[in-house]
Amino acid sequence: MKAKLIALLKDEEGQGMVEYGLIIGLVSIAAIAALIALGPKIRDYFNAANNAVTPP
Q1: What is the DSSP annotation of 31-46?
Q2: What is the pLDDT of residue 55?
Q3: What one-character DSSP code corresponds to residue 54?
Q4: How far, in Å, CA of 38 to CA of 21, rounded?
Q5: What band does 4 get if pLDDT is binned at 50, 70 and 90?
Q6: What is the pTM of this model?
Q7: How far apart are CA 12 and CA 9, in angstroms?
Q8: For the chain, how far is it from start to end, CA to CA, in angstroms?
């Protein structure tokens, strides 16, 4: 029983998944920050494209 518990504590398979989760979280935060910063400019581009296509 003690040997199984020690082996379970030394198991590092889940470590890679945690690292990938942290990377995904940081990339998500960066993407959200970029969208917040560039959102108005992107909206203006879409509005300009919409106005160019829509007849007056």
Answers
A1: HHHHHHHHHHHHHHHH
A2: 80
A3: S
A4: 26
A5: confident
A6: 0.56
A7: 8
A8: 79
| Cα–Cα dist 26/33, whole Å | 11
Look-up: residue for tokens 């829509």?
Answer: 54
Q: Which residue has the tokens 């970029």?
A: 34
Per the listing, tokens 């690292």 go with 19
Q: Tell the burial category of 32 from Cβ atoms under 10 Å away from its Cβ (0-12, 13-18, 19+).
A: exposed
Q: How many residues does the chain have?
A: 56
Q: How far apart are CA 47 and CA 24, in angstroms?
A: 31
At which residue do the structure tokens 């494209």 appear?
49
Q: pLDDT digit string (tens) for 24-55?
A: 999 999 999 999 999 999 999 999 999 999 88
